[in-house]
């Protein structure tokens, strides 16, 4: 497994196009890897875009090392602007009881039970609903949200966005369908309860929308 950070030059036309089109960004990320046979090993390609003031960065977790030369020509700087490191030593150091600061971009949705929309996936709307969605998935993924000194969950919804774009639908003979994606960035502190479950979640992703920049969690040492 590999973790890659790529600095995006958001002033470039190609970068602006990708940042406004998750379908195209998904294709650009996948084109950085050779075709991978089914059942070739653990994990999948996960990616996330972070916007921190004037700095925009792409993070990728992947089973194979990427070659982002083509992406750099379209959305990077004048020199190579990415760095890749082996993710496995870090994953191997994760253990129960550790506390980490985390960032996760996810697509919090629920299944509708209303008769007129039964079975449809609907986005959670409020910050409280979105934080509850994450807390509900914590246990099954080997962690719990830590608490602040006053006993409240140590997690916040730090940004939200909504994208609508066209996607070729193979179930409709290749005709385009409209996709609406609510993307939520969580920042917080967690404690590892089950090393194996948590490690698996870090390489397989959280929730839906993984093809469109959702599901990737990154960690830093908690202060």
The number of helical runs is: 6
Low-confidence stretches: none
The general outline is globular
- Strand fraction band? 35-45%
Structural class given helices, strands, pairing?
alpha+beta
Helix content: 10-25%
Alpha carbon gyration radius? 18 Å
Based on DSSP secondary structure assignment, what is the total number of beta strands? 11
Q: SSE string, helix = H, strand = E?
A: EHHEEHEHEEEHEEEHE
- How far apart lie the N and C ends? 26 Å
Look at the structure and give the mean pLDDT.
Answer: 85
Largest sheet: 5 strands, antiparallel
Organism: Arthrobacter horti
Protein name: Type I-E CRISPR-associated protein Cas6/Cse3/CasE
Region (Disordered): 144-176
Pfam families: CRISPR_assoc (PF08798)
Commentary on this structure:
The chain has 223 residues and is α+β, with helices and mostly antiparallel strands. It is 23% helix and 36% strand. The protein is built from six helices and eleven strands. The protein has helices at 13-19, 22-30, 69-75, 88-93, 127-138, 195-204; strands at residues 2-8, 46-52, 55-62, 82-86, 99-106, 109-111, 121-123, 143-145, 155-168, 176-192, 217-221. A hairpin with a 2-residue loop joins strand 2 (46-52) and strand 3 (55-62).
